[in-house]
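Internal tracking record. Fields below are filled automatically when a chain is submitted to the structure queue. Please do not edit lines marked as system-generated. If the sequence contains nonstandard residues, flag them in the REMARKS field before resubmitting.
Queue: standard
Priority: normal
Entity type: single polypeptide chain
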Amino acid sequence: MLHTELRGCYIFALMKGLCSGSTRRGTPRHRSTLIWITCGSIVLVAAIVALTIFGFRSHLGRVDGSTSPAMSVRKLSDNAPTSLSIDGQPVQAGQLRYALREVKTQVVADCGDGQRSIGSDFWQSTEETCTTALRTKPRSQAERLETQVDSALSTATSALCQDAKDPAHHAACLAVHLLEKQQSTYHLAADAGQTENATWDDVLSNLRELIPPNLGDKTSGPTTYGIDTDIFPTLVERYQTQLANQYINDDDAPGMDVTDKEVRAYYKSRSWNFGPSIEGISSESEKWKVISPLVETDLRRTIYDQLRASTVKHMHTVADPNDVVDFVQATYTQG
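SYSTEM-GENERATED OUTPUT FOLLOWS
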């Protein structure tokens, strides 16, 4: 940019010198006037060209600066849409930043290779250091069900996660998948009539109602959608649990119309430990009265997680890997 200015000044000075030199060499008056007009035109054109180049490059510099990933993410408000969409809805910047905060610890564990300190260069690394294998033998029934949902990927996320071996790509994979799993809960709740719709704006409205009264509108520190960033994940988890429990306990919700025959078949297909709740009960019929509600609830939860997994697999997600990774790097680099 500075070189362009100097070139412009040099051309101007050169033209001025040439023209001045011409008038000093005894040129007739009419020729002198003609030369001055010609030189003046040249100088004017040279100045316009130099200023145009300078202005264009300055403008280009401003555009480049404002559209770089870090600058774009920094300027995006929480409710600004990103290029990512899940379940046919644009994912908002605040929503994606929240998901990235949630998966960051796991990404560092999976990709950090024992590093104690993670710097900004960690997120720019292209080395394939991440391990992503799911646990093949869940240690509990609850973990088995969660693994079932975790292993469900939409077509777009499957492609995004396929080669997610470096930190930024791995974070993109986990964050998008987390949002898909959460969206499956909102989707099922809307299908069951628990909520008006499955939009993120509707979720935010309900999250605000879950803020403990003693916290009020605490905004002294960082916020996410005007909610204290530290408690935001807790509110999301509480809302997810609330929707899941409502669905499971609703006989009219899709898939929850289980019969006694189905409950008994489910009971026989698994090993159970009901502890002291059935101690001293010798009658099978009396025992069944005690344990059948527990078995039915477990069956409903299993069906619910199967529905969530199916919803994720068939979810319409649009994710440009480059855009999402740029967002990841900019978000984590900024701290």
